[in-house]
Amino acid sequence: GGGRKELPTRRPGHGMAPKFPDSVEELRAAGNESFRNGQYAEASALYGRALRVLQAQGSSDPEEESVLYSNRAACHLKDGNCRDCIKDCTSALALVPFSIKPLLRRASAYEALEKYPMAYVDYKTVLQIDDNVTSAVEGINRMTRALMDSLGPEWRLKLPSIPLVPVSAQKRWNSLPSENHKEMAKSKSKETTATKNRVPSAGDVEKARVLKEEGNELVKKGNHKKAIEKYSESLLCSNLESATYSNRALCYLVLKQYTEAVKDCTEALKLDGKNVKAFYRRAQAHKALKDYKSSFADISNLLQIEPRNGPAQKLRQEVKQNLH
Question: Which of these CATH numbers, 3.30.300.30, 1.10.10.10, 1.25.40.10, 3.40.630.30, describes 24-173?
């Protein structure tokens, strides 16, 4: 029995190991990697292999299996293969009902196939689970317009029934710390009346993306004033991108316009409550404005999301000294 060393075990640093992923975890990781590199067909094949390996193991792991179907669905969607996308999303949801990602992916596929009633139902279901999902809010607005056009004023009566999401599956109750809720309610109503009524078209969103990228390039060159102009133009085209607000906040910080920085970070966090940079930059701005309590609160929120964030830990020490 002492000969175990002789087996070609997969040692770390063993040349072949990354080449042939064969466990579910490795296959999924390889699929994710291909997906990030835009190789969707390859990613799809890797997720498919992971599914076969998982199903061959016989022990059921519905969460893992659901994620693999949902990830493969994302590949199909990227490649414009809407029917397979819908099939995989449906498999994912049969394993783990009320998962947001497969619902959103299936909604996008239905929308692309102009099956607006079905898309409407999926977007609506997502909003029952979590009413802060921006893409679902936008989707509902687009579908409502399309359905009014195609089905007329009685369109709601002609929809398939919308599944009732059990409270246990509803994320919105625990997605935010409670004290944020009142703030959100206040700020939401202001927002909705002003700008949120105009849903940006796909063209607007694309224009906004290009302008944001131009802003990012200017930041890299150290031209923060010009970058602010680009980000502001971008936000006029579409004000749904959290990063545009937090990037503009960075520019305001550099230019010592701290109140503006705070405002932009707050907008960024309304759109994405886990935008770590927005928390960090708002904490920096609060600190510069000598509002150490708010600064400390932002850093604490950030560290709940990313406990190992070094700069935030350092900033917390500095703010702590000023708190007492």
Answer: 1.25.40.10
